[in-house]
């Protein structure tokens, strides 16, 4: 689509650039001004910066006017400093939510605005701090852009810049050129970059990527795929020991449930051993039979699918052994090297921030001993005072590594630990509840399984999730029999993941559960006057 | 302060002008008032009444020398103010770009620097004073704040929290560091990271840290629905995230990576010995896992 944008004669081209600190929005604005001036135009840029050194969105505003227009008017032009709603020809957003904000400010209008935005995200604090997944739906912004702009161009310009070893300002500049919204040729854009003299080659590479993407942009953009690809079911297992498990999965389970089962088996082999994974599969087989009895075939085996994920999660609880294991693996050492960009001749040492509590230490002891120590107040106080403190473990040194390695080696005793006993009992109760409910309300049973998502983390975080889970299990029992039971529990789960303090959950529990369930009784005593 | 409030409940907090004022925004939501430069303590003077909880005021070093010494500290001593005053001593006027002030650590031929805030505070008669030379020691700062909020001692409780502004420091140190690397000197670069497979995706760390480098990414694990925490490349290595995770007893996902540039012969030898033992054990365990892999 290369429809020429026609500008109002005698009025300047108006451009707004929305970028965050560090994205090079200023560089981009300067490039455009330089290019325009070189072509003999009048050009001006101004900016309204956001706050602080690394946050805050800045709005750059540019006006470009050809010399001929100034000449025709017979006097030098007065260019504006601020964009006004409904009066912007080109809006460039260096991040997707910046595009959203531009629309909110009214800068994007269907009569005249071309909107070019990168689709990558820098998450806002509100999105990052949700205990669950608080990331906003990017497609809402793209849908709004489709409606609000005369023409919308959106692609991941950040990724293009990274691929070229440059910053997003260069790929945005390329996209502006490729979109052919400004009356300047590609060569003029590139010349401006060259004259800048800083990181020219990388900038030109990023420019070219942005240019191509915009020049070949489709008339309409497909929505961003936010789904997560399901794990693949392999043809053959990687080792002969695991083949029997894979065969059982393929033989006994519906195709739709197999990917998650494979992921579950992999996790549990990694967590403990083949026998433990086999135990998982037996549990799942029981649940699949339950699913069949409850008519799961008509529900796409939702119960088995939910169980495949969350039983595996529940069985691979994060104990000290697990953490020590993950921290000492060779693959992990390699990953850290990769993440910090270590070169072969550089040495890398990591320091782990550990803080195992008394409860966690008791958890890895043999069940009987652990329970006795946990009950002993004197020992607990002593331990908390003298032993329990933050520990910095240098996992690259021999002492640090061997300590963690030995802790990881305790996995062979794991089934005898107190933690294992506690987790197993928890798992049994939870599955028993789901089984009981499945007979009466299939959808509610699925939701009960999904609630396991609340339990995660360590220490205080884990305890908090545990408590919320328990409240939801109680709620499930109370909801059983109501027509909207499953939907209600689903809402409660979302509320439980909405904030740390549990305000949303409290409100929902008070409103949803108590409200229609036990309607408030109006007890009017004689002589009582309602206020 | 979030951690203190978890223990002792909400307090009145009056802020000064400066970057710390961002505490009034999510995820912290800390701070009830701000009046003007250096006026953190002055603006909470009105709360000098017997109450269940003491007011906390924050003051930057720039504001302290601007007027806070007299309007805040002197006033508090004179009126036998019972609250807590935190002075952020980050080595210079940081938010505006690192200009020198009386207590700057730099040597300035035209100005008299290196006049410690501590001496000035004691000079006007403060008895209860704690100096914390590393603000990033979150657990220690929390304990000191809790002590200040609960001690029976009368009069103002002043805490001086010293640590250089990390962003300015990076700007100052980066060229020196790069030069040292080029010159072949043995230098260490620190960075922080999160182990994605250990992180459970609860984001408690994000709620307590607020660091712009601490963000989210997909867990890469089909069993883990929620995104996990991730430290991006803009990390300046201040270590606040790890300290918070430790002080709040959150989780063991954080690590600090020390990247050693230009290792000496001794470093290399030591690394080779360590690598041999560690590598052997890792391969042994990896082989056992591979033996039963699906």
TrEMBL record, chain A:
Residues 258-474 form the DUF6537 domain. It comes from Aromatoleum buckelii. It comes from the Bacteria. PANTHER family: INDOLEPYRUVATE OXIDOREDUCTASE SUBUNIT IORB. SUPFAM superfamilies: Pyruvate-ferredoxin oxidoreductase, PFOR, domain III. Gene3D superfamilies: Pyruvate-ferredoxin oxidoreductase, PFOR, domain III. The keyword Oxidoreductase applies. This is Indolepyruvate oxidoreductase subunit beta family protein.
